[in-house]
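Honest question from a wet-lab person: if I give you the sequences of every part of a complex, can you actually get the arrangement of the whole thing, not just the pieces? Trying it with mine:
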Amino acid sequence: MPPPAEPGPARHVDRVTTAEDRAELRALFTELAGHHMVQLRDFMIEVRCGSALAEWIALSEPAVRSVRGMAEQLELDDICEALDRLLGALTAAHRSGGAISQEHQAALLAAYLPLIDLLPGVLELDAERNRREPIIVHSLLLQIPGIEKVAIDKLVAANLVSVSALSEARPEELAQVTGLAGDLAARVVARFREYRQQSGAVASADPRAELRALTDLVARLRQQNGEYDSAAGSWAPGVKEEKRRLRRERAATLLAIHVSLARLGEVDRLVELDRLNFRRKVEFIESTLQAARAATRARTGPA
Amino acid sequence: MAELSREEVLRRVQRGERLERADLREIDLSHAVLERAELRRADLEGANLQGARLAAANLRNASLREAYLVAADLRESNLENADLEGARLEGADLRGANLARATLEGANLTGARLATAQLSNAQLESASMGAADLTGANLMHADLGHAYLGGACLAGARLVNADLTSANLEEADLRDADLTGADLTGANLTGAKLSNGALAAAGHAAAGAPTNGRRPDLARYFGRGDILRGASLRFDAGCRVEVESLFEQCTIELGEATELIIGTSGVLSDCRITGRGIVIIAGKFYERESPGIVGPLQVVVSAGGCLVGEVEQSGEPTHFAFEPGSNLRVKIRDSRANQRGGIS
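Yes, you can. This is the full assembly:
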């Protein structure tokens, strides 16, 4: 990783003549900066959830430096200063290594939050998290054997619908509060703890790794759907059981795809995906993947 | 892809033209007004019919495989023998619809309204029907194997000879449902409302049974002639459960002071009872593995009753009462002191 830029004041050379020009320039910069810093926003969502690792900083920091360079060229002093503070906090957190401590979490958020006002629209944390988390939680719950509508309704009624609440709960308390059977409550907590440990909360720390995983999942879905269609057209004995097995496996793969797409921030596409039959779902996810790969390349350069 | 555009379909329906056998695969007809449309044998596979108004439409023998019918209005529609495999019907209104012999394998009917719908001989294997309203629906001979019916309302439904093997009926309302001849092997009835003789083939009703001061709405009655295999049942505190049926390989969890009465015709074979309830045996109990009864508050075996198994006391000691004439082959174990006694 390159050493952090030395924070310092931006140059004060006025190259723009009118206020209107400056406003237009700033709007254009905001759009570009937002596009560049999507990964930073996802990282900060995880920081706020308390699920971020210091090693993930390396994936966001280059974009912040790049945006800082653009801001300096355009003489956007206030943004330069805010980005310098953020770079300082990122560097300090990165040096500490491991899971980001509460102290560094607070410092990162303190440095990041002013940027939400300075670059409005794309860096907002809670709205994006609120779009993704219900999909992720619902999909994870449905992956747990024995969890169906009645159990999900009980969790919703108890307002236990976040990754953090379900991963931090104690199984016996969860059972007591929701009325779920003890073994079921234990499975819920275990699944969410496992997910959080492996994947954080609601965002992809490494979008390239997420895209690779999604590529594997869609290939699997294509194969499972082909096998299901073959079984559906068969009159062989035991086909009913075979279809049941394939239907279950296909549904499990689709749930994993839902989680992955939500983590990549593709919530709008998930809504569209829901309405399609399986054959078209596969095509749709493949086209989504292509677009996401291109966007990631544009942000971070070729793999 | 569809041979007609959305606009063409709407135009034809408006003019009252028939669309029988039309190729409408994957067409987008979301929120379209298609009331009384003639769509017999039409191919609507993968079509988007979200929120479409299809009341009284004729969709007999139509293919709606994997169609998206979320929140569609299908009241009084004719879907007899239609293929709805894997269709999405969450929140759809199917009241009074004819779905006799329809294929709904793996379909999602969560929260759908199916009151008084005709579903006889329908294929609902592995369908998701959580919280669906099936009040008074006719499900005679329907295949509901592995279906999810958690929280569904089946009050007054006709489930005569229905296949409910491995179906999940947790917290479903089965009051006044007719389950004569239904196969519930491996079904999950945890928390299901079964009072008023839901399982009573001969029309026995809980209302006539003594309630012993307990809340009548918490009474459960399993009638003579029914067979329950491989089920896990849980009865909350304060319930009174009477069994005149044959239970095989079932696990029964009793809440605090819940009364389980195995009536003179009742047989619990290869079963296990757990929890701090009161177990009264006038029929027969045979354990699956020792201990067959774990932690009961009270065990009473009346004259003619038969208990073959081990009773484990845990926490507070169990009160035993064995009437003269009872048939016992019992081991009593105190888990705290690890003591055993035997009565043969």
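Two things worth pointing out. Residues 138 and 152 of chain A are 8 Å apart (CA to CA). Chain A has three domains: 19-124, 131-198, 207-300.
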